[in-house]
Amino acid sequence: MNVFPSTFLWGGATSSAQFEGGYNLHGRGLSHLDFIDFVPKDERPDGRMTMEITQGRFENARKDDGAMNFPYRRGSEFVSHYKEDIALLAEMGFKTFRMSISWTRLFPTGKEERPNPEGIQFYHDVFAECHKYGIEPLVTMIHHEVPIALTDEYNGWESPELIDLFVKFSRTLIDEYKDEVTYWITFNEINMALCSPYMGGGSLVYRSKKDRLSLAHQIMHHQFLASAKTIAYAHDVAPQCKIGCMIARLECYPYTCKPTDVAVTVLEDQLNLNPYDVMARGAYSKRVLRYFNEAGIDIDFVDGYEDILRSSTVDFLAFSYYMTYVVSGDEDKRENPGDLIKNLRNPYIKTNDWGWGIDPEGLRITLNRIYDRYQMPIFIVENGLGAADTLESDGTVHDAYRIDYLREHIRAMREAVADGVDLMGYTTWGCIDLPSASLAEMVKRYGFVYVDADDYGNGTYDRYRKDSFYWYKKVIASNGEDLD
Ligand code: BG6
Fold this sequence. Notes:
It is globular and about 60 Å long. With about 475 residues, the protein is of the alpha/beta class. It has 17 helices and 14 strands. Helix 16 links the parallel strand 11 and strand 12 (about 425-430). About 50% of the residues are buried. It has a single domain (about 10-475), classed as TIM Barrel (Alpha-Beta Barrel). It is about 40% helix and about 15% strand. The chain binds 6-O-phosphono-beta-D-glucopyranose. 6-O-phosphono-beta-D-glucopyranose binds near residues 248, 429, 438 and 444. 6-O-phosphono-beta-D-glucopyranose (BG6) binds near residues 18, 189, 320, 386 and 438.
């Protein structure tokens, strides 16, 4: 028997910064992500993450001398391909398309009083194209992108100034698009600042008086308030809209069954779920406040924040799911609590070529855990396998590995729905190839559709259907029944 409701929203996800390109069209301003350069693998300091930006690297990028390679500026050229792209999504039978809005396409520096009409029109056109095929847009208001002017002037989300500047932007979105968009998410992965204050907040650690972890929590505090104010406004003027919040969900396993390992794992989970506590229940938990105090996390709480958070909570919970982690209470294996990247390996699961653990069972675990705790509708808004694909000479791409990955995750999701989890939908990440976030590289692909472009922007940017394209089409047509 099929367990997915007939209303289940199957689809795929993108972000404006990674997908749109057209960085200098429609009078768009530059964002902090437009200054993340591509670093080839053999030049990466730890071979892994390049999104934590150093002073030297940032200042070099800000010179913007034309010699540097900035993949975000190119994206996958959605701006000029959007009709073709949405037609491809429609061919797969997409019920929803997750995308985000570029803050700088609407407010180039973030400080303008009125939005840029050309930018406004672009998103009207995109939504109209979606509706032409019966595709429901799922819109993330901000997928990390901060106007670079606000990084320069305020060090991004470290400053409370960003709250009302963002609310001006988010109110514009609601006023302008409330009749075209029902499903909204305020912030992409609001816990991203813990991984990189630059990526998640447009904030440079070297410019802050705070230590890195305090800065990350400060950024999130301001984002929680911006989100709550947005939700209050949306609930007031657009009650038909459903507004959710989103985290990068990192289910954690204890390294052993030693009680100290388990205790650290419980704290880790409380920190990972802190954004849900704040945005769905309307308050920081006592446990998290105690942790802040004991760990010396220095947050300047905004006056009246408790009332603001309490008065407007979300309609659904969204998360991205890529991997699970292992944590240990032992001093020699211990890592920063709340840090999104951990190094301990789980010997029971495989990893992808980028070292990300592949754990479909973890998805069922996490869905059950979240639903048990919050009893709210859940939306999986990112999941997928980053892999290096090969475009064959006849235009085909044989990505059986991606089909295997998605099949197992959809099975796990199906079990969770049968367990009673209220799941609204599933949007796989990067449904059409786009540059990766962590490495700004094109070689790590997630899509059902191949985009002919490399790490340096060489290529035609033509689109090609992969084998997974035809497979996902069947999955959607059978409402998740046919996974063969
Ligand atoms: C999520 C982000 O963290 O993971 C996306 O919301 C990102 O922007 C995705 O692309 C996958 O990560 P990566 O580094 O493989 O692109």
